[in-house]
Specification:
The chain has 713 residues and is of the alpha/beta class. Helices cover 38% and strands 18% of the residues. It has 4 domains: 71 residues, no CATH class; 98 residues, Nucleic acid-binding proteins (OB fold (Dihydrolipoamide Acetyltransferase, E2P), Beta Barrel), CATH 2.40.50.140; 181 residues, Rossmann fold; 164 residues, P-loop containing nucleotide triphosphate hydrolases (Rossmann fold, 3-Layer(aba) Sandwich). The strands form 4 sheets. Strands 13-12-11-14-10-15-16-9-17 form a 9-stranded mixed beta sheet, sandwiched between helices. A 6-stranded parallel beta sheet has the order 18-23-22-19-21-20, with helices on both faces. Strand 2 and strand 3 form a beta hairpin. The structure holds adenosine-5'-diphosphate and magnesium ion (MG). Magnesium ion (MG) binds next to helix 11.
Length: 713
């Protein structure tokens, strides 16, 4: 047995429920489980006795479940679960709303550590919606500081697999398997890292906090080091390949600039220069264009696509949502149409071509089969679309440029698939690889960008187009809601438009975390309210993910053409949507969204020279929520917010996480800049001195990582 042995082979008596839980947690092999680190260690000394809880205090208690009860409120049909937990000193009641599965997770007799805020009702203490970690009943905390040395690991678990199960399983594997060190000995020594086998033991069964921390440090270093090594060696590989040749690049670029209705900003020009020099280098371009929301990345993409089209080759542009793909199709048609360039649109709901035969400045529907045939024959130099572009049946005649917008919404594999469409004529081995350009507004701190995108060259647009007025962001307390509406009315009367964002579609939709959310706004309710009561004199449109593609497109068109003045929407308009006439962004239930997401919403306005406003309306308040939203009002750029997020919530919350390929511990490590720099420097040295083959185990590890699809979605 070794690290690669499947868990099902080690634990032969797994029930179907456990199997699916393991799958859900992404745990297949012994190594996966060993690298499923505890997210926290419970120190029994930090627990509070039940007899000593105080109203309003946040506590963690140990308790044995005595009783479980259920109730369904008849009015709202809401499930309520009650449990009573007991320790040696007393009992306390716990209440969960909309979590009917609690009884299965916490059977009578089981023990857990509960955490939450203590409240009082009818002279009785209780905790509402406590979080819980199931622990072995045999380890009853003694509450005396002296024998609290044993730290208890807590793992993120899933229905079917408890934290306790994981801790037992890990112990079994640690006893059976020997893990070979793959980090170079010099590095282990230089940075005082524990070797792999000790680090694994210390991460899972730490005797002291120091051990747990040393293990954390090692895995964090390792994470950054490996990812950097892997991406940097990918970059070296790409540099060796030959790129698709393009000619008259500068002339086409100049011609493109004349098509634009505006003058480019310095940042846009610089990005285009960098792209031009990539295209001339003889090697494939592999570039990430980073620029805050509204900085004008689309124009840069259009320039690259134009150069390729003028060379008689093809460019593909993939966006994460249908709404955005349609918008790009319109923008490209408007700008590049003037130079008689044909453009196709392909999403699950649409297949269109521009221009239409009859009306030169319009697009028209074509059958998917016909569009695909034209693309295969090279008839369409530019194809814009969603994930549909990477479906098998899409083939290009000569794809020379693959572009991905809002690339943080895609996984690494999906991005790669677009480049792999390198055209039927380029399939031979050694054939040149298409140029690749991806775009993101997701502001991530520089260290994070340099680490997880070490395979890409970076272009940054750091300024906004001229004439933009800073957006004013305000947290609106409930009592001022009507003031906000009256203010919005003045803007609507002036001919401007507003977005209203709500966290959900339906009024009664339960959220996955099961928390009570009676106050959470839904688009349907809000739409009705605004239409009938607040703004009856205006046209109010409704947008959400369950509309058909046609409905979505029509709604967006109406809004873009100011046929509707207010758009009530879910987060489907989060990225990319560009309606410069909209100057108000009102966000309901704002605490439900992450900071990066809120910043994206805010970026939907402030896209013209008119002053724009972002109103943030939380549906509940806490010091934490307030601090977070305050950060939004104070930070003007996404980068400031990203640094804030990193500081206060940990890198795990950043949107870069899913696609980064870094473990939670690795992400956590990014807070420690010195360590990240050290790990990056060591990786760079190995790549530049080409000494990787001197470390066979490390080389093998890198190969293994490269062949593994990353976890995403
Ligand atoms: P993002 O970087 O968020 O993708 P877009 O490309 O959607 O931004 O551009 C935002 C808006 O700014 C669009 O309406 C676009 O037409 C406009 N724009 C882009 N570049 C300039 C510029 N240099 N001058 C004026 N307006 C610009
Ligand atoms: Mg964009």
């Amino acid at each position: 047995m070794d690290l690669a042995t499947p868990l099902e082979q080690i634990f032969t008596k797994l029930q179907p429920r456990q199997k699916s839980a393991l799958k859900h947690l992404g745990l297949k092999t012994a190594e996966d489980l060993l690298r499923h680190f505890p997210y926290r260690y419970e120190n029994p000394a930090d627990l509070v006795r039940i007899s000593e809880v105080i109203t309003g205090e946040k506590v963690r208690i140990w308790g044995r479940v005595q009783k479980i009860d259920f109730e369904k409120t008849w009015k709202k049909k809401m499930n309520i679960a009650y449990a009573t937990a007991e320790d040696a000193t007393g009992r306390i009641k716990m209440v969960w709303f909309r979590q009917p599965y609690i009884a299965r997770m916490l059977p009578v007799g089981s023990c857990a550590i509960f955490s939450g805020t203590v409240a009082v009702r009818k002279d009785e203490y209780y905790i509402a919606n406590p979080l819980y970690d199931i622990v072995p009943c045999s380890v009853v905390p003694s509450f005396s500081k002296e024998d609290s040395s044993r730290l208890q690991p807590l793992y993120s678990s899933s229905a079917g697999i408890s934290s306790l199960w994981i801790s037992k399983a890990v112990a079994k594997i640690l006893a059976l398997i020997k893990a070979d060190e793959f980090l170079p000995a010099e590095i282990i020594e230089k940075y005082h890292l524990p070797p792999l086998s000790s680090a694994l033991r210390w991460a899972h069964i730490p005797k002291t906090e120091e051990h747990a921390n040393a293990a954390k440090k090692r895995f964090a270093f390792e994470g950054v080091f490996l990812i950097q090594l892997m991406r940097a060696s990918q970059k070296e590989e790409i540099k060796k390949k030959s790129g698709i040749k393009l000619s008259n690049i500068e002339e086409h670029c100049a011609e493109f600039l004349k098509l634009l209705p505006f003058e480019l900003t310095g940042g846009q020009k610089r990005a285009i220069e960098e792209i031009v020099s990539d295209l001339k280098s003889g090697h494939p371009m592999n570039r990430l264009l980073e620029g805050d929301v509204g900085s004008g990345k689309t124009a840069v993409a259009a320039c690259a696509a134009f150069i390729v089209a003028k060379n008689g080759l093809q460019a593909a542009y993939m966006a994460p949502t249908e709404i955005l793909a349609c918008q790009h199709f319109e923008t490209f048609s408007k700008v590049l149409g003037k130079a008689n360039i044909k453009i196709g649109l392909l999403t699950s709901g649409f297949s269109e071509k521009f221009p239409s035969k009859i009306a030169k400045e319009k697009s028209t529907h074509v059958s998917k089969t016909q569009l695909l045939k034209w693309v295969r024959e090279g008839e369409f130099p530019i194809l814009i679309g969603t994930h549909s572009l990477i479906e098998k049946k899409v083939e290009f005649k000569n794809l020379a440029l693959a572009m991905v917008d809002e690339q943080h919404r895609f996984g690494v594999a999906q991005r790669g698939k677009l480049s792999d469409k390198g055209g039927t004529t380029h399939k031979e081995i050694g054939a040149p690889m298409p140029h690749f350009l991806s775009m993101t507004a997701t502001p991530i701190p520089r260290t994070l960008a340099l680490t997880i995108y070490a395979d890409l060259d970076l272009s940054v647009i750091s300024e906004m187009p001229l004439g933009r007025v800073p957006i004013e962001t305000k947290i609106v307390p409930p009592k001022d809601r009507n003031l906000a509406y009256e203010f919005i009315r003045t803007r609507l009367v002036a001919g401007e438009q507003a977005f209203v964002i709500c966290p959900r579609i339906e009024p009664s939709e339960p959220s996955p975390d099961g928390f009570s959310q009676a106050d959470m706004k839904s688009v349907k309710e809000e739409h009705k309210k605004l239409k009938e009561k607040i703004f009856p004199e205006f046209e109010i449109a409704l947008m959400h993910g369950k509309l058909t593609p046609k409905e979505k497109d029509e709604t967006m068109k109406n809004f873009r053409e100011n046929k509707a003045q207010v758009l009530v929407s879910t987060s489907v308009v989060e990225v990319g949507v560009d309606v410069p006439n909209a100057t108000i962004m009102m966000i309901e239930g704002a605490e439900r969204f992450g900071l990066a997401q809120l910043h994206q919403f805010r970026g939907r306005v402030g896209r013209s020279d008119k002053k724009s406003y972002c109103f943030v309306l939380p549906s509940s308040y806490s010091a934490d929520i307030f601090r977070r939203l305050k950060a939004l009002t104070e930070a003007k750029t996404g980068f400031e917010l990203a640094e804030y997020d990193l500081e206060f919530r940990g890198a795990g919350e950043l949107s870069g996480r899913k696609q980064s390929g870094l473990s939670d511990i690795g992400m956590e490590a990014l807070k420690n800049l010195k360590m990240v720099e050290a790990a990056r420097a060591e990786a760079k040295t190995i790549i530049e001195s080409k000494t990787l083959p001197q470390y066979p185990l490390l080389e093998e590890k890198i190969k293994q990582l490269q062949s593994e699809p990353l976890h995403f979605e």
